Amino acid sequence: MDVFRQLKRFYWRERKFLFTSVLFLILATIMGLAYPLLLRYLVDDIIQAEKFDMIPSIALLVAGAMVTKACFQFIHGFTGGRLGNRVAFNLREALYEKLQYLSFQYYDRARTGDLMSRLTADLEAIRNFVGFGFAQLLNMILMVTFGAVTMAFIDWRLTLITLITMPIMGFIAIRFELKVHPAFRSIRLAMSRLTTAVQENIMGVRTVKSFAREPFEVEKFSERNNEYRENHIETSKIWAKFFPALEMVANLSVVVLLSAGGWFVIKDWISVGDLVALFSLVWYIIGPMWGLGFHINNYTQSKASGERILEILNQRYDVASEQDALMMESEQVKGNVEFRDVQFHYPDGQPALKNFKLNAPAGSIIGLLGGTGSGKSTVIQLLMRAYDVKKGAITLDGVDIRHIDLNNLREQISVVFQETFLFSASILTNITYGCKEVTMEQVMHAAKLAKAHDFIMELPEGYNTVVGERGMGLSGGQKQRIAIARALLKNPKVLVLDDATSAVDMETEYEIQQGLKELMRGRTTFIIAHRISSLKHADEILVLDKGEIVQRGKHHDLVVQDGPYRHVFDIQFADMPEALRQGRKVAN
Ligand SMILES: Nc1ncnc2c1ncn2[C@@H]1O[C@H](COP(=O)(O)OP(=O)(O)OP(=O)(O)O)[C@@H](O)[C@H]1O
């Protein structure tokens, strides 16, 4: 029940539907009791008393009761459906919002397929239960209670004898619930593993094909598919074992009623009409008891789904704004960035940055160079507060970034990532992503600076061309240029180019840099690059190795020092004529 208590805020605000639905369910159940009572009246007071002229009026009464019950059921079903949909809507909104604000650390571990299955299958299970399952469970309780009370009203001794088997039914039902709940959890888990496999396969289809690993992927899927099937079979076994037992006990009570009831009629303790009414009423109890397994199953399934949804909703934000976080006016921000003795390691990881010190005055260009895994991207992740530093501090215009509102901080920074992500929308939508009021001229200006305008104009529908999922249909370089245009349009105080020109050829890179030069003016720019040509104009270049700064300075100083920078330079400019290499100080 704790799950539903925790989810209360999502259904309690829809309580008018909840109460209406429950009220009309009660009314419909009460109306249902009219049948056995009318039946008793028909047998004892009309047929046995031979008052056949009353049959049309009793038939009309039954028809009236039937229509009224149908109306009550309609209102109950309608409001129940509305309740289920609204609760599912509220939950979906809350889940999506939560997913938006969860930190990078959460996504390091999260699996897309699993999240998708929580947002779809689990949510559907909750919708079903809140809309229908809960009402059915309640209906069952009401029918059993009202049925038993009416039976007792006719003859309490016979009622007691008949319902003697009910505790056994309850016992079987509870054992069933205890077994079926874990089984349903496993089914859900297996389902999410299955979705993860499909989703990863689609995302990585190019890798799979280029390695000709289709058979391996089929095998991998088959294993998970098998696991899913096995889980279902296990659940069916539980079902198959308990259901007939439940049915047998239910039928036993009918046998008891008919035997004892017959004896009561012979003894003249009850009338024939009473027995007919009791026989009809006992089904009023057995019917829902029959479905007990199904209702419990529905309940446990939605409880398992609720647990998985709550797991997301109760997830802690690893990085969040402080309560009275500072809001910086974008126009007032200068862009002075300082890393003060920063230490950082990823959760369960080796140190990724050690004693990292950097002062980037407003408008300066900082280059970051280093081998793979040396910590370059980590510097940027920390600047954006994707993670919080473990020791030391990072400041923007002298303010510790942990005191600045998270969104406000990220509004001041534009990042062009190594891997470009484009939404499956038009190029225009992709470039203007995150910008509220921009004119077409501003978009084109940014695209021209990013050297994207010309190729966009060659596309069939220019800026309105819709790109495929993750930008399929565009080359890596084209995607990068769109991403650069997007970053420029945001007009940030701090610009980060994380290996942003790695996918374009040297010539285009040169052209983009000419455009960027103008743009970098007045902004603090961080350039992460593997090519020396991308960062040789930086005001300060930091060379990283295993999270430590091993060299720092300007290009012309570093290139004449013995060290990793010169080493990289020599490799990259190995084809340069010796004369030029000798005169590199002059050339650069
Ligand atoms: N999300 C993460 N979780 C755990 N460890 C990480 C994560 N991201 C990076 N690391 C580790 O932190 C270290 C620094 O990684 P980082 O991505 O900053 O390197 P990099 O210099 O940008 O490399 P590259 O040039 O290959 O992008 C590496 O050892 C890496 O394995």
From TrEMBL:
Q: Name the residues that span the membrane.
A: 21-42, 54-72, 129-154, 160-178, 245-266, 272-293
Q: Name one GO molecular function term.
A: ATP binding
* Principal localisation: membrane
- Sections of the chain in a coiled coil: none
Disulfide bond keyword on record:
no
Q: Where in or outside the cell?
A: Cell membrane
Ranges for the ABC transporter domain? 337-571
Keyword annotations for this protein, in alphabetical order, are: ATP-binding, Membrane, Nucleotide-binding, Transmembrane, Transmembrane helix
Alphabetical list of CDD domains matching this protein: ABC_6TM_YknU_like
Presence of the UniProt keyword Membrane in the record: yes
Q: Which residues form the ABC transmembrane type-1 domain?
A: 19-301
Q: Which InterPro entries match?
A: AAA+_ATPase, ABC1_TM_dom, ABC1_TM_sf, ABC_transporter-like_ATP-bd, ABC_transporter-like_CS, P-loop_NTPase, Type_1_exporter
Q: How does it sit in the membrane?
A: Multi-pass membrane protein
Protein's UniProt name: ABC transporter ATP-binding protein
